């Protein structure tokens, strides 16, 4: 078990799909146009949401290696049209380099990079650069949040949430909201051409009511130790009544040097 339930991944899937930047998606498709086959490594693949959203962007037949330490999530992943899949149950803190043999053409991850630490991210980029793989990371949390209507506790809660985001989740002290900027800088250092865009969740009642409620619950639980259970509960109650929520994310496409 990873701490990410299949229900949570299913709940967020619609907002994720709407948020992905279409310009970067088109650029990814153009980069691989004319290829006979594309080998893809998906890190923290979960139930395969990234496969379902990314595979249709690439015209060539694809072989996807889905890497995750949660066997129950991986078991729910299924091949998409034009793809074959291979499930790899691995703890990515211990096993990363073996996933680069055979070498992938594309390394991708969705809603994953913010869980990772600086050293791990540097190792990842070094491995990708060594085999000339492109990188496509989507829906990396970037720290911006806007809840409407605002609540007096929002600023304090966000600061506490960011502290929680930076906890070590098994891959080193997590970069949390700094993950995308850090990844981008490392990639540029390796000579990659880096393209970035916002992929914010824009949630509103009534369609996103369940996701807004789940976010309010999860955030209040995460920060209760820092601001006290009573105040966390006051914030949670206010946020369960939020009409609109923006959660900031970034998508990034890195193409190897020409
Ligand atoms: C937020 S979920 C994203 C899942 C999927 N990419 C999606 O977009 O639905 C993060 C995923 O990373 C996986 N994960 C977290 N730490 C891991 C580790 N050390 N090794 C392998 N997988 C890990 C979790 O099991 C989970 O499936």
Q: Which helices and strands occur, and which strands form pairs?
A:
Blueprint: H1 6-19, H2 22-31, E1 38-43, H3 49-54, E2 62-68, H4 71-75, E3 83-89, E4 106-110, H5 118-130, E5 134-148, H6 154-165, H7 179-189, E6 193-198, E7 201-204, H8 209-227, H9 229-239, E8 244-255
Parallel strand pairs: 1-2, 1-4, 2-3, 4-5
Antiparallel strand pairs: 5-8, 6-8, 7-8
What is the C-alpha radius of gyration, as a whole number of Å? 18 Å
How many DSSP H or I helices? 9
Helix coverage percent of residues?
A: 25-40%
Report strand %. Answer: 15-25%
Described by strand count, sense and barrel closure, the largest sheet is: 8 strands, mixed
The count of strands amounts to: 8
Secondary-structure content class? alpha/beta
Run of helices and strands? HHEHEHEEHEHHEEHHE
Identify every distinct bound molecule in the structure, by name, code or SMILES.
S-adenosylmethionine
Which outline best applies?
globular
Point out poorly predicted stretches. Answer: none
Distance between the termini: 41 Å
Average pLDDT value?
A: 96
